[in-house]
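Incident log, structure service

09:12 report received: a user says their structure output differs between two submissions of the same chain.
09:20 pulled the input from the user's history:
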Amino acid sequence: MTFDDLMLDDKLLDALASLRFTTPTAIQEASIPFILEGKDVLAGAATGTGKTAAFVLPALQMLIDEPNNGPDPKILVLAPTRELAFQIQNVITQLARNIKVNTAIVTGGFSQSKQANYAQQACDIVIATPGRLLNFCLLYTSPSPRD
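09:34 re-ran on a clean worker, output below:
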């Protein structure tokens, strides 16, 4: 099987080719078709086997097929650590090099107010760690002192 067999958009195939990826890994081959069909997938594989691309490619394909025309994100990616969140953002940047995709990263370790301003701008994908995402949820759902 090749990435061509997965029926991905030519823009994604070109990005994969520029990265010299021609054949999906086992985890990608097993999961991408189901994700493209809109099914939920729970998958596990060893480090370095292409798990991130296994969910990023279908997410980008969805944005190509159904562009985000509003200010709210269409995709939320939760990462357990700040380091993994930045790695995911890097993979998205590499694979989305031929399409216009706006991402926002929301993690601890950085100014929450600056991230709030950044995250409020129109974006397609939010990559967040659970703790900082919870902070934002509480910030925007807490009653004001006058309530």
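09:41 both user submissions now match this output. Likely a transient worker issue. Closing.
09:42 reviewer note: The longest strand covers residues 75-78. Strands lie at 75-78, 103-106, 125-128.
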